[in-house]
């Protein structure tokens, strides 16, 4: 009976987010109070904020069966900072988190496809993960470049920013079956 109590406690605690992270949720947007790292300058740029995200995975393996990957997308409070309270900049930063979620969903989808093919070679899963991760990094950079954000020059929410918001929202919706 004592073992069951500990197991139950461990299961319950495993679903609680650590206080320095926020798991992505469609019902919870970021707020400036989530940015807890002391304000800093990133590579001597004029950046107004920096959003740190991480996609983490756990692999469950049994002999003679394909591995099962579980992906979680987090906002990292301790590594994210801001020197502004502008709402347009927060929308821009939220989309960085949303882009990470889009790629977490793409990863879930690709891993499921490999599972359906009964693929057991972990290297093939890792290769697909690395491809998608590299694609995500490139898209995060393209997003910043195209919207001219993370530079403190007074740019307001632009048509290009709205284009990105709409595009990512559409892509997230297409992959809603792969939301956590």
- Listing every helix as H and every strand as E from the N terminus to the C terminus, the arrangement reads HEEEEEHHH
Number of helices: 4
Estimated structural class: alpha+beta
Summarize the biggest pleated sheet: 3 strands, antiparallel
Q: How many angstroms separate the termini?
A: 32 Å
User: β content, as a range?
Assistant: 5-15%
Q: Percent helix among the residues?
A: 40-55%
| Total count of strands | 5
Overall shape: elongated
Mean of residue pLDDT values: 85
Cα-atom radius of gyration: 19 Å
What count of domains describes the coordinates?
A: 1
* Strand order, sheet with most strands: 1-4-3
Uncertain segments = 1-16
Description:
With 180 residues, this protein is of the alpha+beta class. It has one domain. The protein contains four helices and five strands, in the order αβββββααα. A hairpin with a 7-residue loop joins strand 3 (53-60) and strand 4 (68-76). The protein is elongated.
Mind sketching the topology for me?
Layout: H1 2-13, E1 21-23, E2 49-50, E3 53-60, E4 68-76, E5 81-82, H2 87-116, H3 122-147, H4 159-174
Antiparallel strand pairs: 1-4, 2-5, 3-4
Helix pairs in contact: 2-3, 2-4
Observed structural traits:
disordered N terminus, two-stranded antiparallel sheet, alpha+beta, 4 helices
In short:
This protein has 180 residues and is of the alpha+beta class. Helices cover 47% and strands 13% of the residues.
């Amino acid at each position: 009976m004592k073992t069951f109590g500990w197991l139950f406690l461990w299961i319950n605690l495993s679903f609680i987010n650590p206080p320095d992270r926020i798991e992505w949720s469609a019902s919870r947007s970021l707020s400036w109070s989530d940015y807890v790292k002391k304000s800093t300058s990133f590579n001597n740029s004029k950046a107004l904020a920096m959003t740190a995200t991480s996609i983490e995975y756990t692999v469950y393996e049994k002999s003679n069966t394909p591995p099962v990957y579980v992906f979680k997308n987090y906002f990292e409070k301790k590594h994210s900072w801001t020197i502004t309270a502008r709402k347009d900049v927060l929308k821009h930063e939220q989309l960085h988190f949303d882009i990470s979620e889009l790629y977490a969903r793409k990863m879930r989808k690709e891993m499921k496809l490999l599972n359906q093919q009964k693929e057991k070679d972990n290297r093939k899963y890792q290769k697909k993960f690395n491809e998608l991760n590299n694609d995500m990094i490139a898209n995060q950079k393209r997003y910043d470049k195209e919207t001219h954000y993370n530079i403190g020059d007074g740019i307001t929410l632009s048509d290009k920013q709205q284009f990105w918001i709409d595009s990512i929202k559409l892509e997230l919706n297409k992959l809603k079956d792969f939301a956590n």
